[in-house]
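Researcher: I've been going back and forth with a colleague about how Ent-kaurenoic acid oxidase might be arranged in three dimensions. Neither of us has a model we trust, so I'd like an independent prediction. The organism is Salix brachista, in case that matters for your notes. Sequence below.
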Amino acid sequence: MEVGSMWVVVLAVIFGGLGAGKWILKKVNWWLYEAQLGEKQYLLPPGDLGWPFIGNMWSFLRAFKSSDPDSFMRTFVNKYGPTGIYKAFMFGNPSVFVTTPEACRRVLCNDDAFKPGWPISTVKLVGRKSFVSISYEEHKRLRRLTSAPVNGHEALSAYIPYIEENVIAMLAKWSTMGKIEFLTQMRKLTFRIIMYIFLSSESELVMEALEKDYTTLNYGVRALAINLPGFAYYKAFKARKRLVATFQSIVDERRNLRKNGALNAKKKDMMDSLLGVEDENGRKLTDEEIIDVILMYLNAGHESSGHITTWATIFLQEHPEFLQKAKEEQEQIVKRRPPTQKGLSLKEVREMDYLSKVIDETLRLITFSLTVFREAKTDFSINGYTIPKGWRVLVWFRTVHLDPEIYPNPKEFNPSRWDNYTPKAGTFLPFGAGSRLCPGNDLAKLEISIFLHYFLLDYRLERENPECLWMFLPHTRPKDNCVARIKKVSSTSA
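Model: Here is an independent structure prediction for Ent-kaurenoic acid oxidase. You can compare it with whatever you and your colleague have in mind.
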């Protein structure tokens, strides 16, 4: 055989072997998760479980670290058609994406068929006893406990003066600081507010340390669960340990104060409520339950508010016509105010009709939480397909919020799209839906409204890099964290 012909044979064998190896690797997840379903595998949604162990995570991370995160879901649509439901392998589990309003609604509102299905890596970071992982019965009990102190009318009214005081002070301070990272400063402000509500804390050193650890924690939540030095998940796990140690010391201190009768009854925060609650059988919450609930609330309560407030401010400044309309509404609120009234009332906040549309449009366009996780408790039929028991379901909010059939020109910021428009069930899900609707949604909107009220009356935002690209993990934000100057423009507020 000639040397040239021999090399052709060798190369053919090598490439043939590589092709066979690739085919085998692509079949591993099928053997592990689909073949065992028997006949039910033929009722699965279209899709691809990807490579073993990694699944579709590389393509997810690649898309969301690019300037076009929606290319990830678009690949499924282009390859398998607009079915609105696709199988995949995500965060270590065989999974199903649901991307249509009706499918999202059915999954989120059916507690008999679905339970929380967050990846075990996320549960380890956020906590086994937090809202993301506890049972329906436990969730109902804790929600009853925490709803009034967080979202109740009396509580919201009581929080307004503290929120106002900090917003006014921070805006004045930022206007003297020159260039700032606006998003970073906003997150510090919203963290200060949530710390006060839950722990009555205003210690700058404690807040700075905790806020830094929460930032690290968030980067690990949507990263690959590689618990080795240098990886985001490893750093997040270390941050969680520090957070738990801090909260444990606070719990111990509060328990001692209760034991000695030294608690201030007039200044009762969420930590005090959690320490004192008992169920119908007289059972109190364990330290782990209290710490995980506090850890989760503090994280969700400042991250979402800080980011959405930042984006609402950016969008308004980029659209002078919308900014002017929102500003005029706030000026009218001040003009109608009785001369004896100092500061905002909850009634006034609830009269901010146009500002509410600005906030809703920001929530839709940014979609702070792009997905939530559920697990099928039983085989479940949906859209002609079967979601097998034990498989995860990723309710993909982002696709719903950016669907041009629901929201024309979906990537355009337009608060007026909400004029005389009531979204149908499943089409607007910034806080989720069903029994596990975000328990702090009213508090978040209150914080955002108060900040925008004072910003619109007296300030403007001048960005250093208005064309700055966006990042999408762990949350949508400008790459430079919105480097800008806050300029004072008038003194119309009372």
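Researcher: What would you highlight for our discussion?
Model: I'd start with this: The first strand starts at residue 85 and ends at 90. After that, consider the following. The mean pLDDT is 87.
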